[in-house]
Design goal:
Length: about 375
Amino acid sequence: MTPSTNTTRRAGSPTPFRRALTCAEAAPGYPGRRPPPPLRVDDPGALIAALPAMLGFVPERSLVVAILHEPARTGPSAIEAVVRFDLDGLTDPSRAEQLTACVASICLREQTEAVLAVLVDDRAGSRAAAAGRAAALVEAFGGAGIAVRGAWSVPAITAGARYHSLFERAGGLVGDPESSPVALSHVLDGRQIRASRGDLTALVVPDTARCARVVTWLGPAVARYRGGLTAATRTGAAVAYQRRALEWVLWQIAGTESGEPRADRELARLAAVLRDRPIRDAMYGLALGDHAEAAEQLWAQLARATPGSDRAEAAALLGFSAYLRGDGPFAGVALAAAVDADADHPMAVLLETSLQSGLRPERLRTLAHCGRQVAADLGVDLGPIGP
C-alpha cells in the first residue's frame, strides 16, 4: 500500500461531534511533496506505526479510518486520506450515524468504496469492546456501500505494542513509529509529529491573564488606528497610511521569526490593524511565502491573547495557513477556535466548512494569491512564492 495524503480532510475540534459541521480529524498532504515511501498492505504493524506520521500526532482512544484508493486495473491500493474520530460517544446511535455519513461522504468524493480501520484504546476490556464496535462498524459501513478491508485494535501506538485483528485470529507487533518510513519522510519535509492531540490544542488555548492585559491596550489602539485612517482618507493618503500599517505588521512577523515574543501593546495594535479589511486580506497571501511559519507563530500569539472577533481573526489566519500547507489536524483545531470565538466570522466559517467537506488545499491558493494582490495594490511585495 502506498499511503497517499494528497487530499485535505476535516481536521477537527476537541470533540468530533461538537457541532453539526464537524466530521473528523484528518491527514491531508500537499502537492509537490516528495512521494511517501511504499507501505505493505499485508503488514498491519507497519500501517499502525505510520498513523502518527499520517495524522501529525499520536492518536489515543481513537478510531482511525484509512480511505483506500483502489485502482480499476490490477495494482496496489493506496491510502487516499486518513480520518480520526474520538472513541468516546460512538456507542450513541446518532453519533455512529454521523461517523458513517462522514466516511461515506469522503469515499464518495474520492470515488472509492473501501477502508481500513484501527481502534486505539488502552482501557481494560477494550479488545472485547473493539470487537463489538468493529461488528457494528462493518454493518454500518456495509449499509452505506463501504467495504472494510481490514480492522485492528491496539492499546497504544508504540513500538512493540501488540495489535489484534478484529476479523480473524491474528495479531502481531506494532513497528517503531519514530522509524516508520512515512515518519522519516515527513521529518525530512520538516513536518512535526506531535506526542498527542493536546499539543495541538495547547497552541491556541486562551491565555486569560495576558488577554486581560492586551484588552487594556486594545481600545486606545483601535481609536488611534481608525482616527489616523480617517484623517488620511480626508487628505487622499489612505493607501499610504495602510501601506505603512502593512509594513509594520510585516516587521512584527520578522521579529517573531527571530524568536522575540510580541509585547502586549504590540499585540493590541496588531489586532487593531487587522480590523482593517485590506490589511487582513493581505495577510492571507503570507501563507504562500517563505515567512508563513513566522506568521503562524504570530497569529497563534494573537489568538491566545485576544477575545471575540479579534481571536477569531487571528485563529482563522492561523487555520488557513495550516490548511494550505496540508496540516489538516492543526487547521481544524485553529478554525474550531475561530468559530468558537465568533460563530459569525465569515472566513472562519467558510474555511471550516471547506475543510469539513474535503476541499483540497491547493484549491485555496486562489485566496492566498488574492491576498498577495491586495498587498501589491497597497505597494507592498510579500516576497517570492514558496513551493
